[in-house]
TrEMBL record:
Listed PANTHER family: GAMMA-BUTYROBETAINE HYDROXYLASE-RELATED, TAUD_TFDA-LIKE DOMAIN-CONTAINING PROTEIN
Disordered as annotated region, ranges: 1-23
A Pfam entry, by short name: TauD
Name of the protein in its database record: TauD/TfdA family dioxygenase
Gene source species: Bradyrhizobium hipponense
Superkingdom, taxonomy of origin: Bacteria
Amino acid sequence: MADKAIERSPFSPRRPLKATQVSEAGLVRESPLRADSGPPLVLQPNDAAVDLVHWAGVHRAALMAKLIAHGALLFRGFSIDSPEAFADLARALTPDLLDYLERAAARSQVAPKVFTSTELAADQWIPHHHEMSYSHNWPARIYFYCDTAAAEGGCTPIASEREFFPRLDPAIKRRFIEHKVMYVRNYGHGLDLTWQDAFQTDDRAAVEDYCRRFNVAFEWTDGNRLRTRQVRQSIATHPQTGETVWFNHAHLFHQSNLEPEIREVLLQAFGSEGLPRNAYFGDGTPIETSMLDDIRALYHECAVSFPWQRGDVLLLDNFITVHAREPYKGARRILVAMADLHVSGAPSS
């Protein structure tokens, strides 16, 4: 259905395109995925022999402008057939890809600076989020590559802050902007990442140095486990457009995001302070679950979902566009690369 819509609607009525296309030679066509011209903008080859890596490098500036305009670009139907080819495309657009430190999810590296997407059980939903919005720094751009599409489900729904943020309850905005968000994490217990996996080191001194530099309170607990607390932003400003966007992980880290049965077991075993992860307002007061339910529900209302096709590459502006993951059945492998590190503040001395 999406492909037919693309053929019927080659240009976006909401954001008219100039007469000159990205490729003057007409090698690539572009169109919105949806009739309302919401994200993503789809780019497809007019000739199967198009070398997307070369073409993207030549038209990099125009593509980056289109990414800001639309928030997401979907490259579909090109010959991107391996993690290495995916990495080549990402580097053609953003030469310096990023490592993944202060991790919030298990991942495996499959090629230099190319990782598996979050390795969470297939029956679980991952809510919409900005990549690493719990941290002091994050990628400004994130790439996804479909190596293997799931037999059923497994989409990566996206939503635009340009739709979400204006619709968010002003009372919720005020509370979060005033107080920010505190994230409490307990690494270990066999329930979540170890600190060694999260910080990619076995050296406690290196972890302590990282925490001190970036204003993360830490304490070592029994069994060589680590607890951290950090207060971070609730909103962010796009470095190029100046737009204000909702930008935090409160609705993911908060205990209300756990299945009720699992939450009760963990609370009985560890208490709220001992949960693998939790979120509070920056002054330590609890966040009302109703607020977080409203945030999750509004992201769902704003979401766009489409089935993956083998070889798809989805490029997101991590400020403008959030992503999620649907449950799935069958084999599924979506790979990720990140680029253009944005630091929210200078490290403390």
